[in-house]
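ok so I'm stuck.
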Amino acid sequence: MIIDKPELQKKAAVLMEALPFIKKYAGEIFVIKFGGNAMVDDQLAKQFAHDVVLMKHIGINPVIVHGGGPQIDVMLKRLKIESQFIDGLRVTTKETVEIAEMVLSGTINKSIVAAINDAGGDAIGLSGKDSHLVIAKKLNHNNTSIDLGFVGEPAIVNPKVLLQSINSNIIPVIAPIAIDEQGDTYNINADTMAGAIAASLGARRFLLLTDVSGVMDGSGNLLTDLNGEDIDKLIKDGVINSGMLPKVATCLAATKAGVKAAVIIDGRVEHAILLELFTETGVGTLIRSEML
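replied:
not stuck anymore, here's the structure
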């Protein structure tokens, strides 16, 4: 057997750099929103599953919340169901929410669970409906009378089933579907669902995987560390705008509700979550509340 000393030295150096972070995060809960290209790219999805299993093996407790908008679009087109949009948001009819639940809680959720299990982990698929995990309420879009149908937001989060899973060394994988107090089913934005779950668990980190590197300054450079005051200024200056606005708002809301910090990460980067957790500089934008 030929031993590649340079390769062994490289791996040892990586391990030594990660060791302080492994000790620092042992026993902590990390909520990860999984979506975008990272979810539909087979290689990235496989790497994500292996990275999540590695986190669990070294003592970190990952909780996964996933999206699936593109996959829902594909299914609606296949079934020849047309969608109406208001301000870029889909009006979700009863028929549409049934399709969304089928895709999110069925196909997507179980494929992620299978990938984690194949990587050597022990995962369980859930939605907000399971064990009263999330009670939804109808989304009031921008405090207007616009009716988006069965689009909801978390009203109550009961993390009991998640804590039971974590204590049993099981990785929860959650679809953003929930019911309200009247028993109606709602589709919830996955970012919002993940942020609310992270807050309910008092997570050490809320990691939001996207298709961008993070929050950029006016010159296109990555901003690596922001607090609420920084974010307010960037919004006023028009630097944070468009699709980044709700992501930043979700992260900041989670930190104000008890999450130690949130990070917006480019899920297209190989092993992005490991690089964020186990390197000094990380790879995304860390967001803290004003209190941290």
